Structures are given as C-alpha cells and as structure tokens.
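call fold target=LysM peptidoglycan-binding domain-containing protein
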Amino acid sequence: MQFRLKSGQEEFIFPVNPEEVTISRQKGFDTVNILSYGEFDFPQGDKVKEISFASFFPKVHDGAICSVPTADFHDPQVAMNTINRFLAQKTPLQFTISNTSVNVPVIIASHQSTFRGGEPGDVYFEITLRTWRELKAAKTASSSGKTAALVNKKPRVDMKPKSKSYTVKAGDSLSKIAKLELGNSSDWQKIYQLNKKTIGSNPNTIKPGQKLVMP
C-alpha cells in the first residue's frame, strides 16, 4: 500500500505509511432563525470531506518500514519542502491510496512538521487534505453576442399569486359561491366588489357561464 500525491507529472510517495487514516464526512446544513419559532436546519448536501493522517520522513531509508524503493526516497527536508510547495499551490492534487478505492482530487488544508531531539534528521508531520470540487459553469450567449457564465443557475420562481376564477353554474348565488370557495357565505361582497363589471349593479343577477374572479 502506498500513499501518493500527484501534481501534474510530479508524483510524491509518502515513505512511511501512517498507522491510521481519518476520513471525516459531514452533512451540510443551512440554519435559519425564524422569529418566535427558533432555529431550523435545512439540509444542503454533503460537505467537503477531510482526510487526515500522521507519519514521519525518515533520515535513512529502512526497507522494513519504508513503502518506497530507494530510488523514490527523499531526504526529510526535501520531502517536507515538497509538501509545503503543494500546500501553497492553487491547483488541486490527486491523492490515492493503492489497493483501496481512495482516488480523489484534493487540496492540502494544513501541514504541520515536528522535529524531535532524540531522533535527529527525522521529520514528523501531520497533514489534512480536503476533497476538491470543480465549479461547474454553463455558458450562454447574451443579446449582445457576448458569452456569459451561469453558475448553478435555477429558473426563478414566480412568487406572485395567480388569480383564481369560478364559473357560475345554474342555481348559484354569490353567497353560495362564497361558502363553497371561501368558506364563509358572508364574504359574497368581496366577490361582488371584484366582479361588478361582469355582474352589473344587481348582485343577484349572476348568470350561468359567467367567470368570476375569486379573492
């Protein structure tokens, strides 16, 4: 098993495998505070995963603990500087663990080095990787002919309420319609006020087939 970081054509293999690897997964939430009701959590998909482990860069190659051949073995200072250089770059790296399903693009979130007095030359380290997601954008042509990028753009929801109508049937009255549609027969005046032009001056003269706008 080998732990590898690859940047373009450059590949770095960690010389000593860590004793354990922690992969952290979390559910993403947006928390909204609604007055008089408190906080509510709304799931928003998975958060970025974190992969963390600790090991060391030995000063001397030891076949009993090193997972890399001598040709791929680096001096601890060189190895540490390589990781620091990867940390500073803005493009993602490819992280793999051989013989496992771990093969993901990552960025280095943190890298900590430790020097111990009793082990001169060796460099101990802790590293945290975060899985990297590409920002997908769709291109559209604007009226001016220029190309514009739309990032995860969704159709706008029309929040304007749509008017509801009712078609008068034989035997209907405004109070009957108000009872059926609004739940209260006394609301017939609201219907009449909205439909005076259709009904006329007498609210009792509605006719079958007339379309009335509902409050």
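return ok
The longest strand covers residues 103-114. Residues 164-214 form a domain with the Membrane-bound Lytic Murein Transglycosylase D; Chain A fold (CATH 3.10.350.10).
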